Amino acid sequence: MAFGPASNPHPGAQASYGVHSAAMNRKAPRWQWALAIATAVLLPVALLVACVAGRGGYGPPEIVNTADRDWLHEKDPGKRLTAALAARFPVGSDAGALEDELLREGFHAPDKAAPADDALEYRWSELPCENFVSVTWTADAYRRLTVVTGFVSYVCP
Fold this sequence. Notes:
With about 160 residues, this protein is α+β, with helices and mostly antiparallel strands. It contains four helices and three strands, in the order H-H-H-H-E-E-E. The chain has helices at about 20-25, 30-55, 75-90, 95-105; strands at about 120-125, 130-140, 145-155. It has a three-stranded antiparallel beta sheet. It is elongated, with a radius of gyration of 31 Å. The N and C termini lie far apart (about 65 Å). Residues about 50-55 have low confidence and may be disordered.
């Protein structure tokens, strides 16, 4: 049995093979291809940057960004951060200077702060880990520091 337009078992029906519409023969304009390629490349990059940036920055804040970054993953890196903060902002120094410096470095108000303490935090990602640094302090009536404490934590899948 032969197949083809001459052997169509349904007389009057149009054969569907070999028939193309004009739309199927048109090529997409170059700008559509360029848009598709740009979207395929730039969207994942933008999402990665958004994930890496988080609410902080692209790396640790200046106050903890030293040549020896392994200390961030020590057993208790908060003690080392607290010592660095105390050396730079000793007890009795201006609390406003500490706050201004932390804000300049990209720290922001945490989602929940202890009611009696002032606190700022900084987040950044080092894939696959999310890192957190927070600084809390108390000040006297003259806005002089009485206690400054640093906390470091990270979450890795």
